[in-house]
Amino acid sequence: MLAGTAADVVGVDANPEAHEHARLRYRASNLRFERGLVEDYAERRDAIVFLQTIEHVQDPAALLAAIGRAAPIAYVSTPNRLTLAPDGAEKSENPWHIQEWTAAEYRALLEPRFSDVRLLGLFHARKLRVHELALAAGWDRVHKALRISKPFYDRFTPAIAASDFVLRDESDCDLDGALDFVAVCRS
Fold first, then answer.
1. How far apart are the two ends of the chain, measured CA to CA in Å?
2. Distance CA 99, CA 48 (A)
3. Of 72, 97, 168, 185, which cross-links 114 as Cys (Cβ 3.0–4.6 Å)?
4. Beta 180-186 vs 73-79: how paired, if at all?
C-alpha cells in the first residue's frame, strides 16, 4: 500500500519466511525488501512505518532511538494491554509478545526518544461498534442458542472494512479503551 504513493519503500524483516513471502508477493519498481533486524537498519528514510511489531522487540527503547535517527517522522503502533490482556495481567497470552503497554506507559517509552509524540487510539466504528454493543447486551448467548454462530460470522467477518475502525486523538477521548495505539513521532 505504501508503494502506491511513496517514491521509495523498503520492507525489513528478519524472519526468512516473511521476507520471502513479501519479496515474492509484493512487487513494484519502487519497492524492495531487505532481510535483517529492524534494529540494525540504518539507511536514512523520509518516514518509518512500524506497525504492530514493537511488542515483539527485546529492546524497544534502542529500536526507537534508531528509528529517530533514521527518519524525521515515524508511525509506530502497538496493541493496548488493557484491552488485549486479562485484567491485571502484565501482558496478553500471545507468546510472541515480549512487552505490552497502556497508553501512559507507551507515551513514557516514546517521549524520551522523540521531540513530539501524538498518540491516537484505534476504536471500533460502524458495524464493529454495533457488534461490540450487541456482545455487551448478550448476543453470544442468543446466537449460540439459535445455532447461528458459524453462519453469522462466516458472513460478518469478511464484511469488516477499514471504515469499521476509527482513530481518535487522545485529546478527544480516554485511550484506555482503545484496541491499539498509533503514535506519530517526530524527531
1. 24
2. 21
3. 185
4. antiparallel
Contact 80, 178 (CB under 8 A): yes
Give the confidence band of 140 by pLDDT, cuts at 50, 70, 90. confident
C-alpha cell at 4: 502506491
| pTM of the shown model | 0.87
Q: How many CA atoms lie within 13 A of 110 on its CB side?
A: 26
CATH topology of domain 37-123+166-186: Rossmann fold (3.40.50)
Question: Minimum mean pLDDT among 74-78, 114-118, 146-150: which range?
Answer: 146-150
Gap between the Cα atoms of 93 and 108, Å rounded: 23
Query: Is the Cβ–Cβ distance between 60 and 99 less than 8 Å?
Result: yes
Domain ranges (residues) in the chain: 37-123+166-186
The C-alpha cell at 150 is: 458459524
- 71: which residues sit within 8 A by CB, 6+ positions away? 44, 45, 46, 47, 48, 187
Mean pLDDT over residues 11-32, rounded? 95
